[in-house]
Recover the amino acids of this structure.
């Protein structure tokens, strides 16, 4: 495998019983699995058996509208990922945490601990939280606007990097005879004073196996791309069309270069949902089975959240077109633009639009035989649109198991995906270097 200079990176986004909004209504789905740790252990084992780079859990610290229509992200992702570290040995473990509704010391401490506990497999998906309703759960009178949240996120990351770097790699000397456990010169105070945070440091946890967890970031808005280009080592993005994905790929890699970063050390992973069948007809029938179980009430609420337009009184079988709205707030503008392009390039009824969005919410959907799904992955990988994919199984565990059993062997036969893990840390899986102490200052200086 090492003879091939470039390999796919595949991450699994595990959302309770499946990303598709109707997955829970399938006859074979066990709805109790939403909060059953054995369900998640099984998913982690399946993903690791496929030698995937990582598993990933999202976070929405608020009970969303129309919660009666589908299962939600009920379990805290960090606690869940920590529990799964004990039943896996190689696969990366990525949890989402918000820079708006957390503090840098607490986050740095938890992820450093996870990196030690997992022996170097921790990843942090950095978000600023788009759900305005979350503010009331954390004592905020108002949800900060996007510009304020992203400014806070940048400082948050600078502080976290400083805390992870507060210990030199060789600070623990363990000199029993001399009675010296730690070299005091190997530990440094941070003494950060900024606009949003005042943090003394140092962290009380020694430098972790990876130096710091791998930084993931999700978002396609302008401030999101800037944050990703400056800090992220792996980027999740929603890109349903190859051409748009190529533009995003080149844009973010170019921005990273302007910050003095090596664009080849940034892994871009568009989301990919998939419906797989023995024939194309079987795959289409499977997708239709899911879509026939969708609830328009849920789809309409999600569409209103993204576009700001209430289609409750719109006939489901009448054509619909989402207008371009430059004034849409940064929280949802990128998703609004996705829906606008979809309805501008195709003639869709409202019902068809809701069904189209039910599986991936704007992510790429591949429907077909294992060979056809693999062909989509290879095309995007080879055409400068992706370094791999954030896999979004529509149902769990079935869709994930099918992908591992039927698609991965095809990618391996093309020498595009590993036969086995060649390292033990998430950084090694992603081809990323272990950062040296103090590297946090490289990009900050370039941005000033």
């Amino acid at each position: 495998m090492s003879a091939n200079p470039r390999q796919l990176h595949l991450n699994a986004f595990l959302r309770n019983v499946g990303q598709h909004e109707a997955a829970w209504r399938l006859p074979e789905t066990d709805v109790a699995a939403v909060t059953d740790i054995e369900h998640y252990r099984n998913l982690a084992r399946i993903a690791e058996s496929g030698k995937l780079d990582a598993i990933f859990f999202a976070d929405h610290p608020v009970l969303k509208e129309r919660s009666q229509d589908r299962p939600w992200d009920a379990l805290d992702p960090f606690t869940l990922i920590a529990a799964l570290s004990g039943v896996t040995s190689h696969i990366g473990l990525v949890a989402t945490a918000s820079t708006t509704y957390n503090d840098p010391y607490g986050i740095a401490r938890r992820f450093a601990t996870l990196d030690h506990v997992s022996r170097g497999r921790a990843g942090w998906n950095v978000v600023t939280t788009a759900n305005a309703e979350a503010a009331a759960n954390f004592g905020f009178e108002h949800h900060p606007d996007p510009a304020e949240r992203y400014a806070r996120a940048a400082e948050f990351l600078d502080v976290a990097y400083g805390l992870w770097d507060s210990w030199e790699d060789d600070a623990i000397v363990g000199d029993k005879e001399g009675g010296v456990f730690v070299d005091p010169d190997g530990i440094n105070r941070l003494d950060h004073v900024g606009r949003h945070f005042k943090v003394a440091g140092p962290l009380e946890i020694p430098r972790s196996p990876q130096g710091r967890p791998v930084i993931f970031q999700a978002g396609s808005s302008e401030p999101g791309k800037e944050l990703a280009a400056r800090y992220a080592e792996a980027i999740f993005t929603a890109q349903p069309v190859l051409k748009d994905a190529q533009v995003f790929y080149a844009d973010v890699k170019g921005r990273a270069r302007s910050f003095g970063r090596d664009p080849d050390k940034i892994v871009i992973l568009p989301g990919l949902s998939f419906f797989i069948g023995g024939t194309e007809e079987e795959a289409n029938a499977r997708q239709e089975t899911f879509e026939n179980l969708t609830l328009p009430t849920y789809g309409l609420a999600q569409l209103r959240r993204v576009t700001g337009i209430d289609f409750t009184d719109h006939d489901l079988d009448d054509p619909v077109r989402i207008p371009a709205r430059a004034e849409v707030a940064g929280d949802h503008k990128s998703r609004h633009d996705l829906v606008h392009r979809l309805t501008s390039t195709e003639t869709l009824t409202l019902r068809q639009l809701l069904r189209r969005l039910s599986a991936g919410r704007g992510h790429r959907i591949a429907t077909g035989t294992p060979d056809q799904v693999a062909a989509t992955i290879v095309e995007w990988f080879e055409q400068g649109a992706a370094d791999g994919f954030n896999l979004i199984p529509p149902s769990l565990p079935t869709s994930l198991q099918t992908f591992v059993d039927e698609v991965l062997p095809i990618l391996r036969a093309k020498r595009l995906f590993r036969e086995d893990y060649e390292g033990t840390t998430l950084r090694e899986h992603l081809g990323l270097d272990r950062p040296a102490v103090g590297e946090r200052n490289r990009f900050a200086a370039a941005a000033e």
User: Anything to note?
Assistant: The chain has 14 helices and 15 strands. The two ends are 41 Å apart (CA to CA). The chain has a mean pLDDT of 91.
